[in-house]
Design goal:
- By secondary structure, this protein is an alpha/beta fold.
- It contains nine helices and 14 strands.
- It has helices spanning 3-7, 18-30, 42-52, 68-75, 92-100, 113-128, 160-171, 179-187, 195-209; strands at 11-14, 36-39, 56-59, 62-63, 66-67, 83-87, 105-108, 134-136, 141-143, 148-151, 154-157, 176-178, 219-222, 226-229.
- A five-stranded parallel sheet has the order 2-1-3-6-7, with helices on both faces. Strands 8-9-10-11 form a four-stranded antiparallel sheet, with no helix packed on it.
- β4 (62-63) and β5 form a beta hairpin.
- The protein starts with a helix and ends with a strand.
Length: 233
């Protein structure tokens, strides 16, 4: 995962101490994170979690209307994002309970700011390393969460095969992806005989992502080898 993509992830902080919330938020913002929401109790945390859809949560154990364990237990019914417990309670029983509910890591207060950012960065890299979200091309954006091409005010749906082909190209952006590799991505372990089908899919993908499909600038044919996708930073 690129650093810029990692720092664009949405992080929810839940703690009943306003000073600690400001401290943790400041640490994360100084490290480059910009999408941060806070909550000070279980109910508020659940509301933000459901409506804002964070991609990582940092939870305190002791909260005024319950505890972080209860919050995590309820949230796991609709969300599987990585969770880090940040708490003054470091007993083994609490640690095991949190991990047993599906928490991914546990830090005991007081903590070093660098340790916190390293733990959060590590969780984001591990949990989202294979996920593509929004990829920018010359004439459009690719939204892999919705399987759509965003072109001006239009949202153009991708078929399942187009989705798989574009994912393989995006994971190797700027590099040549062979015809065999693309056929395998779209049709599985026995990709032989699908070359003509691949060409038809490439043509339809260009119609969706290029300004001029006859003169592509994003999805380029590398004669005799395969295709290359040029993305925009």
């Amino acid at each position: 995962m690129k650093e810029q993509e990692m720092k664009s992830r949405k992080i929810l902080l839940v703690d009943d101490e306003p000073e600690l919330l400001r401290l943790v938020r400041g640490i994360l913002e100084e490290d480059g994170y910009r999408k941060i929401q806070t909550a000070c109790n279980v109910q508020e945390g659940l509301t933000v979690w459901k409506n804002w859809k964070p991609e990582l949560a940092v939870l305190d154990v002791m909260l005024p209307d319950g505890d972080g364990f209860s919050l995590l237990s309820q949230a796991r019914s609709f969300s599987d994002i990585p969770v880090l417990f940040l708490t003054a309670r470091g007993e083994d029983e609490d640690r095991c309970r949190g991990l047993g509910l599906g928490a991914d890591d546990y830090i005991v207060k007081p903590f070093l700011p660098k340790e916190l950012t390293l733990r959060i960065g590590g969780l984001l890299r591990r949990c989202y390393k294979d996920q593509l979200t929004l990829v920018h091309l010359s004439a459009c954006d690719l939204d892999f969460q919705r399987a759509e091409v965003i072109k001006g005010n239009q949202r153009i749906p991708l078929t399942a095969k187009e989705f798989e082909i574009l994912q393989a190209l995006c994971r190797n952006a700027g590099k040549i992806v062979t015809i065999d590799q693309l056929c395998e991505a779209a049709w599985g372990d026995n990709p032989f005989g699908y070359e003509n089908s691949l060409m038809a899919h490439i043509r339809r993908i260009r119609e969706k992502i290029e300004d001029n499909p006859s003169k592509p600038v994003s999805l380029i044919t590398v004669k005799g080898l395969g295709y290359r996708l040029n993305t925009e930073e």
